[in-house]
Amino acid sequence: AQSVTQLGSHVSVSEGALVLLRCNYSSSVPPYLFWYVQYPNQGLQLLLKYTTGATLVKGINGFEAEFKKSETSFHLTKPSAHMSDAAEYFCAVSGRDGGSQGNLIFGKGTKLSVKP
Amino acid sequence: DAGVTQSPTHLIKTRGQHVTLRCSPISGHKSVSWYQQVLGQGPQFIFQYYEKEERGRGNFPDRFSARQFPNYSSELNVNALLLGDSALYLCASSLFGWEGNQPQHFGDGTRLSIL
Fold it and tell me: What are phi and psi for residue A85, nearest 5 degrees?
């Protein structure tokens, strides 16, 4: 069965500092990988996705993530944090085969705080 | 273009009651999925529908049911509500239902509170 682990339920950075949110997955076959962001009282917005090809994926709002098969990781980074980045971030996987296709399995989320 | 729309935005029910939540997908999207997000947790998959047929079901009791209409909108029904059903219910749409690489686009959810 697939699973997603997000290390750190809460990450705090200063404005302008590097943002690093960690995600590891467990799957017998490398899945499709996604990062979503959720602002208070809102739904989830897709930041970026990895399906195939280049392992470094660029998303919206300056975020990027790198798929590392050997480490089963898909960490999210942003070189310089902005106050508007404060939100909750979810890593998710979707299977490439069988009944796991088409539905997302989410991690528990990491709440990002940005200090002025 | 309008995104995924859900109604109502908030709902308060009491234990034992029944609730119906509604979702309209992005125009052109044929697949709708439902997720439950309990406070402090990531969303959990409940159902996926494509072309009015159930394509996937998560680990939820039979009190939860859903359907998709010819215009691709969807309803989620929950019977015999329990306190533990209090959550944000999210609807997501995608072009197709069987391709895991299709990004899912989420609505803002329905906040359900059970008293």
Answer: -80, -10
- Compare all CA atoms of chain A with the CA of B111 and give the residue at the minimum distance: A41
Q: Which residues contact A21 (CB under 8 A, 6 or more apart)?
A: A6, A8, A11, A35, A75, A76, A77, A89, A91, A110, A112
Testing the interface with A: which of B95, B106, B108, B113 to mutate, by most A Cβ within 10 A?
B106
List pLDDT tens digits, range A21-50.
Answer: 999 998 877 788 999 999 988 889 999 999
Predicted confidence band of residue A100 (pLDDT cuts 50, 70, 90): low
Chain B CB contacts of A32 below 8 Å: 100-101
Nearest to B89 by CA among B44, B48, B50: B44
Quick one: DSSP state of residue A53? S
